Amino acid sequence: MTDEKDSIRIGDFASLVGLSIPQLRRYDRMQLLEPEGRSEAGYRQYSTGQTGTGRVISLLRSIDVPIADIRRVLAGLADDERRQLFTDHRARLEARLDEVRRLLDAVDALSKEEPMTMNAPTELSTWLHVMPRIPVSDMQRSIDYYQEALGLRLAWQTRDGSLSAIASGAIEMLLLVPWNGEGAPPPHSAYVYVEDPDSLCAEYEAAGGVLIEPVATRPSGMRDFIAGDPDGHRFTLGCGTEVLRDVADHYGLEPDEIAVDPHWLNDRR
Asked: 135: which strand partners?
Protein backbone atom coordinates (compact mmCIF):
# COMPACT_ATOMS: atom_id res chain seq x y z
CA MET A 1 0.00 0.00 0.00
CA THR A 2 1.37 3.42 -0.96
CA ASP A 3 2.23 5.79 1.89
CA GLU A 4 -0.35 8.60 1.84
CA LYS A 5 2.40 11.23 2.04
CA ASP A 6 4.11 9.67 -0.97
CA SER A 7 0.98 8.92 -3.00
CA ILE A 8 0.19 10.81 -6.19
CA ARG A 9 -3.24 10.83 -7.79
CA ILE A 10 -3.43 9.66 -11.39
CA GLY A 11 -4.11 13.15 -12.79
CA ASP A 12 -1.15 14.68 -10.99
CA PHE A 13 1.07 11.74 -11.92
CA ALA A 14 0.06 12.10 -15.57
CA SER A 15 1.16 15.74 -15.51
CA LEU A 16 4.44 14.88 -13.78
CA VAL A 17 5.55 12.24 -16.26
CA GLY A 18 4.01 13.54 -19.49
CA LEU A 19 1.47 10.78 -20.07
CA SER A 20 -2.30 11.07 -20.41
CA ILE A 21 -4.77 9.53 -17.96
CA PRO A 22 -6.08 7.10 -20.65
CA GLN A 23 -2.47 6.02 -21.31
CA LEU A 24 -1.84 5.36 -17.62
CA ARG A 25 -5.03 3.31 -17.35
CA ARG A 26 -4.00 1.30 -20.40
CA TYR A 27 -0.46 0.74 -19.15
CA ASP A 28 -1.88 -0.42 -15.83
CA ARG A 29 -4.02 -3.07 -17.58
CA MET A 30 -1.03 -4.09 -19.67
CA GLN A 31 1.12 -4.37 -16.51
CA LEU A 32 3.60 -1.95 -18.05
CA LEU A 33 3.24 0.70 -15.34
CA GLU A 34 0.97 -0.40 -12.51
CA PRO A 35 0.04 1.98 -9.66
CA GLU A 36 1.58 1.13 -6.32
CA GLY A 37 -1.79 1.23 -4.62
CA ARG A 38 -5.39 2.39 -4.64
CA SER A 39 -7.39 4.73 -2.46
CA GLU A 40 -10.30 3.52 -0.34
CA ALA A 41 -12.54 4.64 -3.19
CA GLY A 42 -10.56 2.47 -5.62
CA TYR A 43 -8.67 5.23 -7.44
CA ARG A 44 -5.17 4.58 -8.74
CA GLN A 45 -2.33 6.00 -6.66
CA TYR A 46 1.26 6.27 -7.80
CA SER A 47 4.44 7.05 -5.86
CA THR A 48 7.26 9.50 -6.43
CA GLY A 49 9.53 6.52 -7.00
CA GLN A 50 7.58 5.66 -10.15
CA THR A 51 8.09 9.03 -11.86
CA GLY A 52 11.38 7.91 -13.42
CA THR A 53 9.76 4.90 -15.05
CA GLY A 54 6.82 7.01 -16.16
CA ARG A 55 9.09 9.57 -17.81
CA VAL A 56 11.07 6.88 -19.59
CA ILE A 57 7.84 5.43 -21.01
CA SER A 58 6.66 8.92 -21.99
CA LEU A 59 9.94 9.67 -23.76
CA LEU A 60 10.00 6.39 -25.66
CA ARG A 61 6.36 6.68 -26.70
CA SER A 62 6.99 10.27 -27.88
CA ILE A 63 9.42 8.85 -30.44
CA ASP A 64 7.01 6.03 -31.30
CA VAL A 65 9.00 3.13 -29.80
CA PRO A 66 6.75 0.02 -29.77
CA ILE A 67 5.42 -1.15 -26.41
CA ALA A 68 7.22 -4.50 -26.76
CA ASP A 69 10.55 -2.66 -27.03
CA ILE A 70 9.68 -0.41 -24.08
CA ARG A 71 9.18 -3.54 -21.97
CA ARG A 72 12.67 -4.66 -22.94
CA VAL A 73 14.16 -1.31 -21.97
CA LEU A 74 12.40 -1.31 -18.60
CA ALA A 75 13.50 -4.89 -17.93
CA GLY A 76 17.10 -3.87 -18.46
CA LEU A 77 19.26 -4.31 -21.54
CA ALA A 78 22.97 -4.66 -22.08
CA ASP A 79 24.56 -1.68 -23.83
CA ASP A 80 24.88 -3.48 -27.16
CA GLU A 81 21.26 -4.69 -27.00
CA ARG A 82 20.03 -1.19 -26.21
CA ARG A 83 22.02 0.29 -29.11
CA GLN A 84 20.65 -2.35 -31.48
CA LEU A 85 17.09 -1.64 -30.32
CA PHE A 86 17.42 2.05 -31.16
CA THR A 87 19.25 1.28 -34.41
CA ASP A 88 16.31 -0.90 -35.49
CA HIS A 89 13.83 1.78 -34.48
CA ARG A 90 15.77 4.42 -36.39
CA ALA A 91 15.58 2.25 -39.50
CA ARG A 92 11.79 2.11 -39.14
CA LEU A 93 11.61 5.90 -38.84
CA GLU A 94 13.89 6.35 -41.85
CA ALA A 95 11.55 4.18 -43.92
CA ARG A 96 8.70 6.53 -43.00
CA LEU A 97 10.90 9.53 -43.79
CA ASP A 98 11.66 8.15 -47.25
CA GLU A 99 7.93 7.97 -47.93
CA VAL A 100 7.38 11.54 -46.71
CA ARG A 101 10.26 12.76 -48.89
CA ARG A 102 8.69 11.06 -51.89
CA LEU A 103 5.43 12.90 -51.19
CA LEU A 104 7.30 16.20 -50.75
CA ASP A 105 9.04 15.67 -54.08
CA ALA A 106 5.66 15.13 -55.69
CA VAL A 107 4.32 18.33 -54.12
CA ASP A 108 7.41 20.27 -55.30
CA ALA A 109 6.93 18.92 -58.81
CA LEU A 110 3.31 20.05 -58.84
CA SER A 111 4.26 23.51 -57.58
CA LYS A 112 6.56 23.98 -60.60
CA GLU A 113 3.98 22.91 -63.17
CA GLU A 114 1.72 25.27 -65.07
CA PRO A 115 -1.62 25.99 -63.35
CA MET A 116 -4.13 23.26 -64.08
CA THR A 117 -7.31 24.14 -65.93
CA MET A 118 -10.63 22.35 -66.02
CA ASN A 119 -10.10 21.44 -69.69
CA ALA A 120 -6.50 20.28 -69.39
CA PRO A 121 -5.98 16.53 -69.83
CA THR A 122 -4.97 14.97 -66.55
CA GLU A 123 -4.10 11.55 -65.25
CA LEU A 124 -5.92 9.99 -62.35
CA SER A 125 -4.20 10.88 -59.09
CA THR A 126 -2.82 8.24 -56.75
CA TRP A 127 -4.76 7.42 -53.60
CA LEU A 128 -2.50 8.48 -50.75
CA HIS A 129 -4.47 7.33 -47.74
CA VAL A 130 -7.84 5.70 -47.08
CA MET A 131 -9.68 6.83 -43.96
CA PRO A 132 -12.73 4.63 -43.23
CA ARG A 133 -15.85 6.26 -41.81
CA ILE A 134 -16.95 4.14 -38.86
CA PRO A 135 -20.48 4.65 -37.48
CA VAL A 136 -20.56 4.38 -33.68
CA SER A 137 -23.51 4.24 -31.31
CA ASP A 138 -21.69 5.99 -28.44
CA MET A 139 -18.98 8.42 -29.52
CA GLN A 140 -17.25 8.81 -26.15
CA ARG A 141 -17.31 5.07 -25.46
CA SER A 142 -15.64 4.43 -28.82
CA ILE A 143 -13.03 7.15 -28.32
CA ASP A 144 -12.16 5.69 -24.90
CA TYR A 145 -11.98 2.18 -26.32
CA TYR A 146 -9.70 3.07 -29.24
CA GLN A 147 -7.40 5.00 -26.91
CA GLU A 148 -7.32 2.70 -23.89
CA ALA A 149 -7.74 -0.76 -25.41
CA LEU A 150 -6.11 -0.32 -28.83
CA GLY A 151 -3.54 2.35 -27.96
CA LEU A 152 -4.56 4.87 -30.63
CA ARG A 153 -5.15 8.56 -29.96
CA LEU A 154 -7.80 11.19 -30.63
CA ALA A 155 -6.37 13.44 -33.37
CA TRP A 156 -9.25 15.93 -33.45
CA GLN A 157 -12.98 16.26 -32.87
CA THR A 158 -15.55 18.78 -34.06
CA ARG A 159 -17.15 21.00 -31.44
CA ASP A 160 -20.56 19.41 -31.90
CA GLY A 161 -19.08 15.91 -31.61
CA SER A 162 -20.32 14.89 -35.05
CA LEU A 163 -16.87 13.78 -36.23
CA SER A 164 -13.85 12.37 -34.42
CA ALA A 165 -10.58 11.34 -36.04
CA ILE A 166 -8.60 8.52 -34.45
CA ALA A 167 -4.89 8.39 -35.28
CA SER A 168 -1.86 6.12 -35.03
CA GLY A 169 1.57 7.67 -35.40
CA ALA A 170 1.28 10.44 -38.00
CA ILE A 171 -1.69 8.86 -39.78
CA GLU A 172 -5.35 9.69 -39.15
CA MET A 173 -6.83 6.27 -39.73
CA LEU A 174 -10.47 6.24 -38.63
CA LEU A 175 -13.22 8.83 -38.87
CA LEU A 176 -15.88 8.12 -36.23
CA VAL A 177 -19.39 9.36 -37.02
CA PRO A 178 -22.51 9.05 -34.83
CA TRP A 179 -24.95 6.30 -35.79
CA ASN A 180 -28.57 7.48 -35.57
CA GLY A 181 -30.30 4.60 -37.28
CA GLU A 182 -32.32 1.83 -35.71
CA GLY A 183 -30.48 -0.96 -33.94
CA ALA A 184 -26.73 -1.42 -34.06
CA PRO A 185 -24.68 0.28 -36.80
CA PRO A 186 -23.78 -1.86 -39.83
CA PRO A 187 -20.45 -3.61 -39.18
CA HIS A 188 -17.39 -2.45 -41.10
CA SER A 189 -14.09 -4.24 -41.64
CA ALA A 190 -10.61 -3.18 -42.69
CA TYR A 191 -7.15 -4.69 -43.12
CA VAL A 192 -4.37 -2.86 -41.28
CA TYR A 193 -0.68 -3.52 -41.93
CA VAL A 194 1.38 -3.58 -38.71
CA GLU A 195 5.00 -4.39 -37.89
CA ASP A 196 4.54 -7.13 -35.30
CA PRO A 197 1.07 -8.73 -35.12
CA ASP A 198 2.13 -11.19 -32.39
CA SER A 199 3.24 -8.48 -29.94
CA LEU A 200 0.31 -6.23 -30.86
CA CYS A 201 -2.21 -9.01 -30.27
CA ALA A 202 -0.70 -9.64 -26.82
CA GLU A 203 -0.88 -5.91 -26.03
CA TYR A 204 -4.53 -5.68 -27.05
CA GLU A 205 -5.42 -8.73 -24.98
CA ALA A 206 -3.63 -7.31 -21.91
CA ALA A 207 -5.35 -3.94 -22.37
CA GLY A 208 -8.85 -5.43 -22.61
CA GLY A 209 -9.28 -5.26 -26.37
CA VAL A 210 -11.90 -7.38 -28.15
CA LEU A 211 -10.03 -10.24 -29.86
CA ILE A 212 -12.11 -12.14 -32.40
CA GLU A 213 -9.42 -14.42 -33.85
CA PRO A 214 -5.90 -15.12 -32.53
CA VAL A 215 -2.69 -14.63 -34.50
CA ALA A 216 -2.16 -17.17 -37.26
CA THR A 217 -0.34 -17.49 -40.59
CA ARG A 218 -2.77 -17.58 -43.51
CA PRO A 219 -2.49 -19.40 -46.86
CA SER A 220 -2.31 -15.95 -48.49
CA GLY A 221 1.09 -15.39 -46.91
CA MET A 222 -0.13 -12.97 -44.23
CA ARG A 223 0.24 -13.43 -40.48
CA ASP A 224 -2.54 -11.61 -38.71
CA PHE A 225 -5.28 -11.51 -36.08
CA ILE A 226 -8.72 -9.93 -35.86
CA ALA A 227 -9.73 -7.31 -33.28
CA GLY A 228 -13.14 -5.76 -32.82
CA ASP A 229 -14.74 -2.73 -31.19
CA PRO A 230 -17.90 -2.21 -29.08
CA ASP A 231 -20.06 -1.72 -32.20
CA GLY A 232 -18.95 -4.92 -33.92
CA HIS A 233 -16.50 -3.40 -36.40
CA ARG A 234 -13.61 -5.72 -37.25
CA PHE A 235 -9.97 -4.96 -37.98
CA THR A 236 -7.56 -7.57 -39.31
CA LEU A 237 -4.03 -6.57 -38.33
CA GLY A 238 -1.07 -8.32 -39.90
CA CYS A 239 2.07 -8.40 -42.02
CA GLY A 240 3.51 -10.43 -44.86
CA THR A 241 5.57 -13.58 -44.29
CA GLU A 242 7.97 -15.57 -46.45
CA VAL A 243 4.94 -17.34 -47.89
CA LEU A 244 3.84 -14.07 -49.48
CA ARG A 245 6.62 -14.41 -52.06
CA ASP A 246 5.38 -17.89 -52.97
CA VAL A 247 1.86 -16.53 -53.44
CA ALA A 248 3.24 -13.73 -55.63
CA ASP A 249 5.25 -16.20 -57.73
CA HIS A 250 2.11 -18.26 -58.33
CA TYR A 251 0.45 -15.25 -59.97
CA GLY A 252 3.58 -13.98 -61.69
CA LEU A 253 3.83 -10.91 -59.48
CA GLU A 254 6.41 -9.29 -57.28
CA PRO A 255 5.54 -9.35 -53.53
CA ASP A 256 5.37 -5.54 -53.42
CA GLU A 257 2.68 -5.61 -56.12
CA ILE A 258 0.26 -7.34 -53.76
CA ALA A 259 1.29 -5.51 -50.58
CA VAL A 260 -0.53 -2.49 -49.20
CA ASP A 261 2.78 -0.81 -48.32
CA PRO A 262 5.63 -1.81 -50.69
CA HIS A 263 8.25 0.21 -48.79
CA TRP A 264 7.36 -1.60 -45.58
CA LEU A 265 7.69 -5.00 -47.30
CA ASN A 266 10.94 -4.14 -49.10
CA ASP A 267 12.58 -3.20 -45.80
CA ARG A 268 11.98 -6.74 -44.55
CA ARG A 269 13.24 -8.78 -47.49
From this structure: 177
- Specify whether 186 is located in the same domain as 258: yes
Residue 47 included in any domain: yes
> pTM for the complete prediction?
0.58
Task: Specify whether 190 is located in the same domain as 260.
Answer: yes
Query: What is the DSSP secondary structure assignment for residue 250, as one 8-state letter?
Result: H
- Domain extent for 36: 7-75
Name which of 70, 57, 47 is nearest 17 in CA terms. 57
Identify the pLDDT of residue 260: 47
pLDDT of residue 74: 92
Mean pLDDT of the chain: 82
The DSSP line for 180-201 is -SSSSPPP-EEEEE-S-HHHHH
* Element spanning 7, H or E: strand 7-9
Provide mean pLDDT across the span 80-102. 86
> Are residues 141 and 243 located together in one domain of the fold?
yes
Q: How is residue 112 annotated by DSSP?
A: H
CA distance 245 to 253: 9
